[in-house]
Amino acid sequence: RSGEMAKSTQLIDNDVFRAYATYTAIVLLKMMLMSLVTAYYRITRKAFVNPEDTASFGKGDSAKKYLRTDPDVERARRVHLNDLENIIPFVGIGLLYALSGPELSTALLHFRIFTGARILHTFAYLIPLPQPGRGLSWAVGYAVTFSMAYKVLKTVLFL
Questions:
Q1: Quick one: DSSP state of residue 131?
Q2: Model confidence over 89-133: pLDDT tens digits?
Q3: Is residue 2 packed enough to be buried (19+ CB in 10 Å), middle (13-18) or exposed (0-12)?
Q4: Euclidean distance between CA atoms 148 and 95, whole angstroms
Q5: Is 156 exposed, middle or buried (0-12, 13-18, 19+ CB in 10 A)?
Q6: Mapping DSSP to helix (H, G, I), strand (E, B) and coil, where does residue 67 land?
Q7: What is the mean pLDDT of residues 45-59?
Q8: 3-state DSSP assignment of residue 48
């Protein structure tokens, strides 16, 4: 039923909403995984920002050497921050988009491209792959979110 707003009681039966829920869960789990990746790099590189985190390495000056930054930790943190800046808008705009009655095939295209772009962005950032790989993967995901926002505004405001 393209072009029709979904009723809340029908959401679980709505294929577009189910697709939205699936791909949103994937990108949110990917974003959560970045916390674990950052923690892994902190532990394996012994690079911490809080004094209490260095307690297992000794006290005083012997522990202070672990209060430092590390390029790999910072790279993982930047991936996580970039996820926060891009996945959260996708979640909100994607929900409005899913409720705006798009065709299933078009919605799946949006959701799949965004998810693939965010996963590629993570690998491009962590490996790191040469530019413009990371930049293009970011831009593709960003464009998908803008495309969904345009569809929502067009549906609601008749732009």
A1: T
A2: 999 999 999 999 999 999 999 999 999 999 999 999 999 999 999
A3: exposed
A4: 10
A5: exposed
A6: strand
A7: 87
A8: strand
In sequence order, the 6+-apart residues with CB closer than 8 A to the CB of 155 are: 3, 100, 101
Amino acid at position 142, single letter = Y
Q: Which domains does the chain have, with CATH numbers?
A: 1-153 (1.20.120.550)
pTM more than 0.85: yes
Better-predicted residue by pLDDT, 12 or 95: 95
User: How many whole angstroms separate alpha carbon 67 and alpha carbon 38?
Assistant: 15
Q: Are 17 and 98 in contact (CB under 8 A)?
A: yes
Question: Cα–Cα distance between 136 and 120 in angstroms, integer?
Answer: 10
Would you say 133 and 124 are in contact if contact means Cβ atoms under 8 Å apart? yes
Structure tokens at 145: 């979110």
CB atoms within 10 A of CB 15: 11
